[in-house]
Amino acid sequence: MKTIVVAAFVLLLIYYGPPQDRSSPFDAAWMLGALALLAAAGGQLAQAIRLPALVGWIGAGMLLGTGGLQLVDLGAFSLHQLLLLTAGLGVGFQVGLHVVWPTHTWRTLGLVAAATALVFAAVTAATALLGLPWEQAVLLGALAGLWGPFTGVPEFGRRGALVLAVLGTGCALGALAGTLVLLETGAAGWVGRVGLSLVAGGGLGLGLRLLRRFATPSATIVSGLVGAFFLTALALDTLGLMALPCGLVAGLVQDKQQSRRVRLLLHRGAPVAFVLFFALLGTALDLGALWPLADGLYEAALVLVAVPLLLRGLAPIAYYPLPGPYPGRRIGWRLLPRGALLFELFCGPHGLAPYVGAEGLLAQAVLLDILVSTLLFSSLSLLADASLVPAEKAHPSEEDMAA
């Protein structure tokens, strides 16, 4: 009840905020504050009704953004792009810090690569049979093969799914890059920028290690990370690079023992980077772009829902690929939530949409895939997790594993 009252109070403040017909130097701060407050309240409200907090964060952005009340004007909100990149770096970095490689990494990588190829081939074949031009069908299959390590705050008890998603992301990025080059879409430069994003992440991670920030007080750690991410976001924005892959590599190259303090600090604190990133993501999603519906969109949407459900959600029940301490054959349900990387690669500030067309069936299918893979699949994953809680309690905590 308290959360509902807070959300209603925030909406009233937004409604009676500064007039939209008159600009003010404080407009950007007002938009960001309103978005952050409503996203935080929306996350609490979603959890109160047993939905993932992610639903409330994205819902708040969609309510206030381009496809909703348009109270967060992306044209007037000059910091939108920079804040999205900064938050994306924080999300990717936190995910990278929580990755612990399994003993049989190469075998796991082979299985993940095979699963990625299966999704790629199945979506491509199905959408081509539905009448989509084969170039767009192949591109849609490559995009559907992306994984979702960034959709959800990382938890050490879910390290098995996190490892699979990170390995799958590498395989899917390679498949997408090869597809774009072979199709000669003119996106070879964009592929190069994705590669440079990974290189920049390595440089950022090594810089953080050399600065030894993880041995400083907690307040200095937080301020140092925020400053480093903000300056890096400025560079990414100038060069047209991607934040999520950059942040992921920066987190992966950290020494797990030396970074124990910052990992625990981020794990225990509020997920500010995730709240901000997904709220800003929601402001950029325009449901009006789905109208008028392109021919074949219903069929394409069915394929984009059915293929991941079968090949990622249900297949691990028959064969569980990770050996050792990773709990539960139902890990496949945790592999379904994704969409954050798909959003940045296609719809983000330096996305792929201008190269392949921002309208038509392909664009509408990608938008639906983002919504389904974040909202619906995250909810299904949460329902599946409810039956795994007793099993996970038997496993060591983060503090025990990091000690």
Question: What would you note in describing this structure?
Answer:
Helices cover 68% and strands 0% of the residues. The protein has 18 helices and no strands. It starts with a helix and ends with a helix. With 403 residues, the chain is mostly helical.
Portion of residues within helices:
55-70%
Distance between the termini: 40 Å
Helix vs. strand class: mainly alpha
Main beta sheet, described?
none
* Helix count from the secondary structure assignment: 18
Strand content: under 5%
Topology:
Elements: H1 2-15, H2 27-48, H3 53-64, H4 80-97, H5 105-129, H6 134-144, H7 159-183, H8 188-211, H9 218-239, H10 243-252, H11 260-268, H12 272-284, H13 297-318, H14 340-347, H15 353-356, H16 361-385, H17 389-393, H18 398-402
Helix pairs in contact: 1-2, 2-3, 2-12, 3-12, 4-9, 4-10, 4-12, 5-6, 5-7, 5-13, 6-7, 6-16, 8-9, 8-10, 13-16, 14-16
Summed up:
The protein is mainly alpha-helical.
Supply database-style keywords.
single chain; 0% strand; globular; mainly alpha; 403 residues
